[in-house]
Structure formats: structure tokens, C-alpha cells
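Researcher: Please translate sequence to C-alpha cells.
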Amino acid sequence: MKKRDFSYYLILFLLIAAGFISWSLYFRIYRQTDTVDINTFPAVIESWTSENIPISEYDLAILETRNAFIRKYTSPEGKSIFLFIVYSQNNRKVSHPPEICYTGSGATIVSSAHDSIPASGAILSIQVNKLAVEKGPQKQVVFYWFKVGDTMTSNYWKQQSLIAIKSFTGEPASSALIRISMDADNENISPVTQDLKEFGQHILPYLFSYLP
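Model: Translation complete:
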């Protein structure tokens, strides 16, 4: 074998080996303990007060973390919005699309679209996924999106790619799923959509502070 051919195959082998190791590291299951407790997230947002909704042990096992909460925030006018956040500094698997959970619980995704929440400063808006969900007589409008470091995205695969890149380069690769939802009238969901956008605006600054 010529020396040039040997060098070529050696480099090719090293590249394949490096790729395999990187891929294995990315897809391994992380069990490290988070140093950030997102349960310190403010229980009062503007004039909205909250109460915690218990998460079952079964659901926590599926999430693979206890660093999660569901809260029901209520305005002085009596409006109620549910906020669900799951966060991990090490486990990319905690933040998966909620459609999986909805359909698994027997709910129906009536519609799925993209929307946005107006923001301030350098970020003009946050792109979100908007779902209309039905389960029996109950209907909800749901907004959800992902956070990786300081990046917000509605795209699950972009989130996973960002985590992979940050993990490969040694940067912090924390991830979160943020979901807000509200019960809706079957005939008109426009007021609910507006309420969710306004509430989303209120929580955005806290997401950067409490979910690093």
C-alpha cells in the first residue's frame, strides 16, 4: 500500500471514530443533578397570582427530571392560565413536543400553527407553536416553545441541534420547554389567544433570569 493511501485511510478512520464518539456522547442519558431549581420561578407575575398543580410520579418519570412545575396563574378579573415548565442543565430528553403527551392522554389536536409573542429590546418577537386541543367537552389553546441558553425557538429540531453543538463545543447546554395554555370557548378563541400573548410577554424576562 502506498504511503499516501495509508495516510488517507488513517485520516478517514480517525474521522469516523471521532464522529462515533461524539454521537455516542450526545445520545447518552444524563443523570447529573441540576444546580438550578426552577421552582423558584416567581409565583406572582404582574397582577397574576398562582397555585401549584401536582405532577404525578408517573409523569415525572417520563420527564426524567423533577425540575418541572405546573402552575395555574389567575388574574384579578378571574382569568386562568396554566404555565408548565420543564428544565434540565444536562438532559436533552426532558424537552420534547407536548403533542406526544396530549395524544397519549386521549386528547385531540384540532389544529396546529405558528404564532409569535411580541417581545422588547433586541428581540422583537418569540416564535411559538399554537395548538387547539380538545378532550371531551373541554377545549384549550396552547402556546409552547423551547429555550437553549439564551436562544428561544419554536422548532424542536433546532433546539436539539443547538444542544448537540453546545455539548460538542463544551458550552452549557441547558434546555427547557415552556408551555402556556388557557381554556377556550368553542366558538371564539381570539380573546384567549390575546390573553396568552400578553401573559407570555409578562413571563419572558423571568425566563432569562430563572432558566439560565
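Researcher: Any highlights?
Model: The helical segments are 3-27, 57-63, 99-104, 156-169, 190-210.
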